[in-house]
């Protein structure tokens, strides 16, 4: 009963915030990256810790050729590009938002092997251009598929096919919360009385997230073009919101794919 009352108070607040979000994804992401990245405006999915990376580390060692470069597609502020730069000869972080790329480059000053560029991974020829620049490369993606509609997910997979050539692999990791949008927002720490700042910033600028798991992967990466090497459930860490100092743990899904 209390839970229902909480939801009844939360719903109109969420709807009011979401009504401010730009419809155009490019505009939405640019606005988001212009408003976050300071101590007072934390990035929702950047817990600042890399405990989450342990399963990725295992998958990198098991499946990826670490002599090839890696492209971090949708790199945001470059947190994971910097993690990759310690493991690959070159980590190129690319993002649709010029402000994200700017922030990533600023935060990565002096980090060897990390570079950044503004690229729309859904734009025509994006994959071919990356391939021409780097040769065959691995791809790392965290948190991009789950914000795209199925048709765009399919197009993104086609871009990645152009990047990997024959030797590159795709390692993707996505949030996969299977409840309703409102249940997700509650899981992240919102109540009828309070919506934490990092969550509020996302709701009022960004398109609503979806979930991305085994069935979504199979639709986006057709069997005729991709071989699934491994998949597993993981935990995606977001900034502390429900409890001070404790990152919010979001159910996630991770997979490694090879091109056919
Ligand atoms: C949820 S954030 C994840 C950021 C980063 N991967 C991380 O885990 O910290 C999704 C990122 O994808 C970027 N993005 C959205 N659409 C894109 C596109 N079409 N091409 C490249 N990047 C895109 C956004 O600007 C944003 O930085």
Keywords:
10 helices; 39% helix; 260 residues; binds S-adenosylmethionine; alpha/beta; 7-stranded mixed β-sheet; Rossmann fold
Describe the model.
α2 (25-35) packs parallel to α5 (98-107) and α6 (126-134) runs parallel beside α7 (150-164). A seven-stranded mixed β-sheet has the order 3-2-1-4-5-7-6, sandwiched between helices. The model has no long low-confidence stretch (mean pLDDT 95). It has one domain (44-183, 209-259): Vaccinia Virus protein VP39 (Rossmann fold, 3-Layer(aba) Sandwich). 39% of the residues lie in helices and 22% in strands. The protein is globular. It has 260 residues and is of the alpha/beta class. Bound molecules: S-adenosylmethionine. S-adenosylmethionine is lined by residues 25, 29, 45-46, 74-76, 79-80, 95-97, 100, 120-122, 142-144.
């Amino acid at each position: 009963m209390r839970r229902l009352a909480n939801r009844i108070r939360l719903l109109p607040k969420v709807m009011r915030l979401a009504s401010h979000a730009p419809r155009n994804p490019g505009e939405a992401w640019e606005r988001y990256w212009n408003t976050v990245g300071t101590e007072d405006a934390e990035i929702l999915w950047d817990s600042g810790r890399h405990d989450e990376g342990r399963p990725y580390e295992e998958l990198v060692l098991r499946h990826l050729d670490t002599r090839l470069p890696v492209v971090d597609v949708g790199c945001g502020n470059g947190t994971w590009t910097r993690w990759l730069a310690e493991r690959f000869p070159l980590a190129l972080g690319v993002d649709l938002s010029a402000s994200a790329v700017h922030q990533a480059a600023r935060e990565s000053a002096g980090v060897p092997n990390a570079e950044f560029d503004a690229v729309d991974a859904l734009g025509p020829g994006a994959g071919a251009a990356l391939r021409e620049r780097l040769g065959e490369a691995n791809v790392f993606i965290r948190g991009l598929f789950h914000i795209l509609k199925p048709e765009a997910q399919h197009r993104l997979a086609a871009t990645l096919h152009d990047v990997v050539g024959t030797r590159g692999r795709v390692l993707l990791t996505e949030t996969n919360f299977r409840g309703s949008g409102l249940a997700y927002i509650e899981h992240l720490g919102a109540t009828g009385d309070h919506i934490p700042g990092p969550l509020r910033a996302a709701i009022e600028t960004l398109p609503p997230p979806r979930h991305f798991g085994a069935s979504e992967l199979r639709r986006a990466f057709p069997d005729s073009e991709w071989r699934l090497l491994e998949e597993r459930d993981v935990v995606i860490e977001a900034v502390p919101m429900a409890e001070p100092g404790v990152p919010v743990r979001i159910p996630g899904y991770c997979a490694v794919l090879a091109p056919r």
